[in-house]
Specification:
The protein is globular, with a radius of gyration of 19 Å. The protein is 48% helix and 19% strand. The protein folds into two domains: 4-177, Rossmann fold (3-Layer(aba) Sandwich), CATH 3.40.50.720; 181-305, N-(1-d-carboxylethyl)-l-norvaline Dehydrogenase, domain 2, CATH 1.10.1040.10. Strands 1, 2, 3, 4, 5, 6, 7, 8, 9 and 10 form a ten-stranded mixed β-sheet that branches. The protein is of the alpha/beta class. The longest helix has 22 residues, at 179-200.
């Protein structure tokens, strides 16, 4: 029987991974919130549009609930707040020695995955590509192909397997020696982009084009970098401002994940992204007025969802 890769969370990131794995000829199963979602994907597949505008049909997916043998690898693409629930739901579907790759935004989920699967099998990573779900049954990759995976004590075998699968699927994999540095750097990046664009309901390109939005984004980045350094986790890259603006210019049509969540009536990952940064800033007396304001605005928008 052909080994199957399990993708947990068929959102924008999950479907982008699934498209890559299927394009490389792998057997792929998806685990969604409901059996109906899985059956729909298995029956109809989805349309994947690349940065060049070309659209391909991704078919042949399996429903995770119908798997007859445990998956040979698992990639978790759920929200940070859903990590524990998703790990519990997927555990029985994953082979006992299979690598488990967690690709979440924010900080704090890593301990939940290690608790569920053990340190040897767990690989923590982050994605630096822009993916959107403009409509049901569609995913659009707006730019980028980077996936960072962190080395941790004892996870060398799982790390090598995960990196090999992602590389074969067309992603550019980079290995990081500091998991904490990788996560805090990505959190700072997200903190400077996601809440501002979500609050203003604009695509990422506007953050680079509009002078006022660009200034606010760079202020948020500066505050996030200071908070991370105060917590003992200086950012991995000294040119983060240039990287942030280049990312916005390279994927101008991207609706970031917070904007996608609010548009779909879902709660965002603001707590997982902004929470650790603000906690570090407050504990060490590091001013973060822009981050505080953005956090308050997103919280208010989320409260409206429940009305």
């Amino acid at each position: 029987m052909t080994p199957t890769i399990l993708v947990i969370g068929p959102g924008a990131v999950g479907l982008t991974l699934a498209a890559g794995f299927r394009g490389a000829g792998a057997s792929v199963a998806v685990l969604g919130r409901s059996a109906a979602d899985e059956r729909r994907l298995a029956a109809s597949g989805f349309a994947a549009t690349g940065p060049d505008g070309r659209t391909t049909r991704v078919a042949g997916l399996l429903s995770a609930r119908a798997l007859r043998a445990p998956a040979c690898a698992a990639f978790f693409c759920v929200k940070s707040g859903d990590a524990a629930r998703a790990a519990a739901a997927a555990r029985r579907l994953i082979a006992a020695d299979a690598p488990v790759v967690a690709l979440q935004n924010g900080i704090g989920h890593e301990t939940k995955f290690r608790r569920a699967f053990g340190s040897r099998r767990t690989v923590i990573g982050v994605c630096y590509f822009a993916a959107d779900r403009p409509a049901p049954g569609q995913v659009r990759l707006n730019g980028g192909d980077d996936v960072l995976l962190a080395r941790a004590p004892g996870n060398d075998t799982a790390l090598a397997t995960a990196a090999g699968l992602l590389t074969t699927a067309g992603f550019r994999v980079r290995l990081k020696e500091s998991e904490a540095g990788m996560l805090w750097t990505k959190a700072a990046f997200n903190a400077a982009v996601n809440p501002l664009a979500a609050a203003c309901a604009v695509e990422s390109g506007r953050l680079a084009e509009d002078p006022a939005l660009r200034e606010l984004s760079l202020r948020a980045l500066s505050e996030a970098a200071a908070a991370a350094e105060a917590a003992g986790h200086p950012l991995d890259y000294p040119d983060m401002a240039e990287k942030l603006l280049a990312s916005a210019r390279n994927a101008p049509r991207q609706r970031n994940s917070m904007l996608q969540d609010l548009a779909a009536g879902r709660r965002t990952e603001a707590n997982a992204i902004l929470g650790p940064l603000l906690t570090a800033a407050r504990r060490r007396g590091t001013p973060a007025p822009t981050l505080e304001l953005l956090s308050a605005v997103i919280a208010r928008l989320e409260r409206r969802l429940s009305r």
